[in-house]
Amino acid sequence: MTQTTLRQHLTAQSTETDLMILMEDIATACRMIADRVRHGAFAGVLGAAETENVQGETQKELDVISDEIFQEIVGVNPNVAALVSEEVDEVNWRKAAPQAGDFVVYYDPLDGSSNLDVNLSVGTIFSIVKLDEAISPEAQAVQIKGTEQIAAGYAIYGPSTGLVITTGQGVDGFTHHPGSGEFLLTQPEMTIPAETQEFAINASRYDLWETPVRSYIDDCLRGADGPRGKKFNMRWCASMVADVHRILTRGGVFLYPKDTGNAAQGGKLRLMYEANPMGMLVEQAGGASSTGYGRIMEVAPTGHHQRVSVILGSRDEVAVIEGYHKD
Ligand SMILES: O=P(O)(O)OC[C@H]1O[C@](O)(COP(=O)(O)O)[C@@H](O)[C@@H]1O
Ligand SMILES: [Mg+2]
Ligand SMILES: [Mg+2]
Question: ipTM exceeding 0.95?
Fold first, then answer.
């Protein structure tokens, strides 16, 4: 084999052994989730609620199946103190007596799952932090700022299965090679161009947006004759993994702002297992991630399922959007 495997890549980056094994466990879980996703309706229930099939057996949503796979593979890693999943209300402690140096893994086992029924790209997002002396291994211990992440990434289940990771040394993309089962390095050193003419937002929420976001999108839509002086393209996958993957590949900005429809919850997207890991990846690729008012990774968490406003992507465009929030 001539291409670099995930292990060879992590070894070349001098990744500590425990983290390398954890990343490989996550890659294994993602391979297994990819297999279930690829089996479509044969794998269980797609986006619908848990139901009984014709034999009277309980069929599970793919979200739940993916979470169980993650728990079975990543949850038995001896250095994982706790898992925090979108699908599980409480912190899933894996060790009775967590120690400094143990890992906490935050994850969204299946992101964009409303896309399953229509057979579009979905993914798995993960974020890794380490417990240290300063952080007591109790319930609050899992509310750790995004700046403390030591690694983050996502798998994308699209026409091919990809794995995009960072350990704080840039961002690298791998493609699953079905013959060998390996993730092979196919997009080394992914970088996001500083400027863009492409935005991603769910425009059906226009009437709910706050003034800064509405003014920004209005100005983009006015094209070459408007205040931005250029024509913008728009994309919206309704799957954050797919939207961020496009941005890491060719630039752009992604917005899921807090609006009057979701303000009571603090926004739509989750800080610990959506916004922080994507924020780390985007920043490591030379982009920026913001709430509109400050860096996402510096938001002090108040709960492990906390929601937050998300604006991320091409650095100069994120700065422009922050400017609208200052005006
Ligand atoms: O349906 P909307 O409002 O467009 O929201 C789409 C957003 O919701 C999400 O699907 C939330 O993720 P889950 O599928 O994990 O709940 C994001 O991936 C996506 O950006
Ligand atoms: Mg999600
Ligand atoms: Mg999800």
Answer: yes
